[in-house]
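Supplementary notes for students who missed Thursday's class. We covered one full example, reproduced here. Read the sequence, then the structure, then the short commentary at the end.
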Amino acid sequence: MDGEAASKASFDLPGRQQAMLDAVVATGKPVVVVLLNGRPVDLKDLRAAAILEMMYHGSAGSAATASLIFGDGFQAGSSCSPGLGGPRNHRCTTPT
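Structure (token representation):
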């Protein structure tokens, strides 16, 4: 899911992805959600054990993701997007 050449009126997950996540979390097993996307998404109702935001991570991203999930790596740095409570009047988050 990216923001290239497309406007969106909401930050909700596309299609049936939210229903799938709800079903997986409802199993009661610990769930780690790994997001590979190009724009912020609204996960306010998600009750996962962890959320790992990788954005579009490049050629070494798969190894980095696995390293973080299995505890071999350490996530450092800052978020590339602010926490959002909903649509804002901001050039990076306002649909064009």
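Commentary. The mean pLDDT is 77. The first strand starts at residue 32 and ends at 35. If anything here is unclear, bring it to office hours.
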